[in-house]
Amino acid sequence: MELIDKKIVITGGTSGIGLEVVRAVAPLNQVIVIARNSEKLSQLADTFNITPYQCDLSDLEQVKQTATAIENDHPTLDVLINNAAVQFAPTFISRDFSYDNIENEITTNLTSVCCLTSILLPALLASSDAAILNVNSGLALVPKTSSAVYCATKSALHAFSTSFRYQLADTHIRVYQSLMPLVETNMTAGRGSGKMSPEEAASQLIRGIERGVEDNDIGKVKILRWLTRIAPSAAAKLMKAS
Q1: Is residue 1 part of a domain?
Q2: Cβ burial, residue 159 (10 Å; 0-12/13-18/19+)
Q3: GO CC terms on record (predicted)?
Q4: 39-54: buried (b, 16+ CB within 10 Å) or exposed (e) per residue?
Q5: What confidence score (pLDDT) does residue 186 get?
Q6: Which domain holds residue 92?
Q7: Sheet containing 30-35: which strands, arranged edge to edge?
Q8: Which value, in Å, is the radius of gyration of the alpha carbons in the chain?
Q9: Is 219 inside a domain boundary?
Q10: DSSP characters for 172-191?
Q11: What CATH number corresponds to the domain at position 132?
Q12: pTM for the full model?
């Protein structure tokens, strides 16, 4: 699929990887951005030719209302990029752990993806050539010690993407994943080293869509995937220590 003259919906398009995707595709496509921060959305709309929709993806009623509004405003869509995610690092035994973050993380990272995809599916089916891309993480393959709920949502997103791909096999909609390494974003500030830039992550994400790569292992995820195949215990030990 060539990303030219497409109608593209992207969540979390005001920062990080999502913002870089918007920068790359907005000049040649009609881009619809869903994000929580209305001020950032307004600034983005002043900079790029995008259509903004304010929505807190941790609130499923807002997700339903926003997705319904998009479907009504845009009966045909070509690409849906489920990019937005949140991650809370404290372990369950940490003093900083918050019970309230459990639902927030699951809803934002997984449930809202399922709901948004469900409501926008008719508009995607109305296109002659459509794609759904779920931005995932290498943690979907092997979890780490911290961020247990985040790891669980990414593993579940991997299963959802695979099953949903099977369901749409006889349609013209293709279901893709981009499995990201550690990327330099606000979410990963102060954690880890050797991070990929959001510009490079976005570039490889877009390249994966255009080349039709179903599960696009980006950066160090290629090594992790290889390690899970030849030495799964070593992969688990590596991620446990990360």
Answers
A1: no
A2: exposed
A3: membrane
A4: ebbeebeeebebbbbb
A5: 73
A6: 7-240
A7: 50-54, 30-35, 7-11, 79-82, 130-137, 173-180, 215-217
A8: 17
A9: yes
A10: SEEEEEEEE--B-SGGGTTS
A11: 3.40.50.720
A12: 0.94
